[in-house]
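Q: What changes when FE2/S2 (inorganic) cluster is included in the input?
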Amino acid sequence: MPKVTAQGKTFECEPGANLRRVLLGNDVALYNGNAKLINCRGIGSCGTCAVMIEGEVSALNWKDRGRRSLPPHNPDRPLRLACQTCVLGDIKVTKYNQFWGQGQALVW
Ligand code: FES
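A: The predicted holo structure follows.
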């Protein structure tokens, strides 16, 4: 079972599990501020579930690439949309500040 480390916690999930669902299911504060209420619920259009991931996850898909190619995201920054990412191995997840998680300061 892959181990996910995020917001100071470590928990396991099924291989291939959707990262957004895994994080929310383990009470991780995936969204910053009002993005907790104003988000696309995982269809890949809002971009607010962006996180930095170290470890093995699914390949980047077109929704993730497309949404993060639009401002305020920067396509050159190696963030991922949690809702478009499946967990394949042990990972560490980091969240940055600002509404879309596009900032430079660590939230957790
Ligand atoms: S929840 Fe909207 S893009 Fe992931």
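Observations recorded in class: The first helix runs from residue 19 to 25.
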